[in-house]
Specification:
By secondary structure, this protein is mainly alpha-helical. The protein has a single domain, classed as Growth Hormone, Chain: A. 83% of the residues lie in helices and 0% in strands.
């Protein structure tokens, strides 16, 4: 009986929003604020694995051949989480899916801390897999801001969620020494310190979403889509068939390509730096600039994507990644400035690709299938990142960091012909 009453109450709330454009705009703004606060903490959580994950594995394994495995594992974990969060969100809404995704990532970070204390590679590996749920959720949260956005607001809405990730994402790498010292003071190896921050940050992000993401924006968006179908007497199956597959393919292609290039070069940069005498503070500074470049330009990027077009910004992504790969390959190992420039360009190119690709996906889906497709696309992105992370260590071990960077440059060029693929219907 109680469940029935709650369901009826929820339906009444949803109906009140579908009948009021003023309430919809108010919910749109509140959703952005909630997502923004969760992303500040989520950014701090994802930075731990990026900054010291490979170094932790290097210490445990005693070899460079498999230092890309941590990135591969938490990226693989993010693929699994993206699928689950996307499908659950389609049925139940964003709030529970995103909230529990962040909390799961926090539990994985706790597992990494315990693995560091026990020096157990067998506990580290599954813990990194679970930790990856936070990475997936952090990316999926960008979609929550677009659920009630108009077609001219979508890229800007996605970018709003991402730009505030910068605060946590930049702070995380630059707190490596502080968290490392704190970890040592409580009997945890210094490389486990950033994961202490990650555990707390991810769990707080999840709690924020669970408490404040009400009413659920995706449920309102789905209700609006259903009203539109009923008003036009169009069968739901016919509406779902209008999903523009070409736009989904293009959006997925740009995000997959940028993810492979970014993850591969980013993963091996800390290892490359350590081999040439740089300390953890230097690594944290370079990765901090990199992550800042991944997220901080988002607000401007979103406006550009909405104003000048999705495809043009995707091509700009390929060209920026090309420059990043060349700069990384040519950068003297002892030059902090050149490494910062290279990794900043790498982050910026990824940013262009992710926001333009996200807008293409949202443009090409409907309310009744959007979350499911978004989750499926994010699975492919995560698997691409896992492949890039796993292979990067092997490439560097058997060749060089420069060879890896040049390979990334070549792959980034593929975005240009993909985006110039003729469209007989229209140009986005």
């Amino acid at each position: 009986m109680e469940i029935a009453r709650n369901s009826t109450k929820q339906q009444e709330i949803i109906r009140s929003y579908t009948e009021s454009s003023v309430k919809q705009q108010g919910l749109y703004r509140r959703t952005l604020v909630t997502v923004i606060f969760s992303q500040i903490f989520g950014g701090a959580g994802l930075a731990a694995g990026v900054t010291v994950g490979a170094l932790l594995a290097q210490d445990m394994l005693g070899t460079d051949n498999f230092t890309g495995i941590p990135t591969a594992l938490f990226t693989l974990g993010s693929a699994i989480a993206a699928l689950l969060v996307g499908r659950y969100s389609q049925k139940r809404g964003r709030r529970i899916g995103l909230g529990m995704g962040f909390i799961t990532g926090g539990i994985g970070a706790i597992g990494v801390i315990i693995a560091a204390v026990l020096h157990s590679i067998w506990l580290l590996l599954p813990s990194l897999l679970i930790y990856g749920a936070g990475t997936a959720t952090n990316l999926q949260a960008r979609y929550a801001g677009t659920d009630l956005a108009s077609s001219k607001q979508r890229a800007t809405a996605a970018s709003m969620a991402m730009v505030f990730t910068t605060f946590g994402a930049v702070a995380g790498p630059n707190l490596v020494n502080v968290t490392g010292d704190f970890a040592l003071s409580i009997g945890v190896p210094s490389l486990g310190g950033p994961f202490i921050l990650a555990a707390a940050a991810y769990i707080i992000a999840g709690i924020i979403l669970l408490i404040f993401l009400r009413p659920d924006p995706l449920l309102i968006a789905n209700a609006l889509a259903n009203r539109s179908v009923e008003a036009t007497s169009q069968p739901r199956e016919q509406q779902e068939s209008t999903t523009e597959k070409r736009g989904v393919i293009l959006g997925a292609a740009v995000m997959i390509a940028t993810q492979i290039v970014m993850v591969a070069i980013m993963t091996m940069t800390p290892v490359h730096m350590r081999h040439h005498g740089h300390g953890l503070s230097d690594v944290g500074l370079v990765i901090g600039f990199h992550i800042g470049s991944m997220y901080l330009p988002s607000l401007i990027t979103g406006i550009l994507v909405d104003k000048i077009g999705r495809k043009k910004m995707a091509i700009a992504s390929g060209l920026t990644l090309l420059m990043a790969g060349i700069a990384a390959a040519l950068a003297p190992a002892n030059s902090m400035i050149m490494l910062i420039v290279a990794l900043s360009l790498l982050g910026l190119g990824w940013n262009f690709g992710l926001i333009s690709g996200t807008a293409l996906i949202v443009d090409s889906t409907t309310g009744n299938n959007r979350a499911k497709i978004q989750g499926s696309v994010d699975v492919l992105i995560a698997l691409a990142g896992a492949s890039g992370g796993a292979l990067s260590g092997m490439v560097v071990a058997h060749s060089s960091y420069a060879a890896l960077s040049y390979t990334g440059s070549f792959l980034s060029l593929l975005l240009i012909p993909i985006m110039l693929w003729p469209n007989k219907k229209k140009t986005l």
